[in-house]
Specification:
mainly alpha; Histone, subunit A; 3 helices; 2 strands
C-alpha cells in the first residue's frame, strides 16, 4: 500500500506533530514498511493456527500475595536523612 505525503501530513496534524519535509519523508517510508508487513501477514494461510497469548505454557507462577511487616515505621524513620514527627522531610521541588 502506498502512503502519500498528504496522508502523512494529515496524520501529523491529527497527532499534533510538526514534521519538516525530511521527517515527513522518513515517516512515509516507515509507514509504508509497516503496511507492507501487515499485508504480508494477511496474505499468509493461518488456518488452524492458534493465537499466541502467552510466551510460555506455564500458568501463574506468582507467589501468593500475603501482607507482612518488613519494616516498622520507627525503623523507616530512623534511616531518614530528615524527618518531621511521622513524615519524611524532603526538599521543595515545586515553586509557588
Amino acid at each position: 500500500m502506498k502512503i502519500s505525503t498528504e496522508d502523512v501530513q494529515k496524520l501529523a496534524h491529527l497527532s499534533r506533530l510538526q514534521l519538516n519535509d525530511s521527517e515527513a519523508e522518513a515517516m512515509k517510508q516507515d509507514l509504508t514498511k509497516i503496511l507492507d508487513f501487515v499485508a504480508a501477514i494477511e496474505a499468509m494461510d493461518l488456518e488452524g493456527v492458534e493465537p499466541l497469548v502467552y510466551m510460555t505454557d506455564r500458568e501463574n507462577v506468582l507467589r501468593e500475595d500475603e501482607p507482612e511487616t518488613v519494616m516498622t515505621h520507627a525503623q523507616a524513620m530512623k534511616n531518614a536523612p530528615d524527618a518531621d514527627s511521622d513524615y519524611f522531610r524532603v526538599p521543595r521541588v515545586v515553586e509557588k
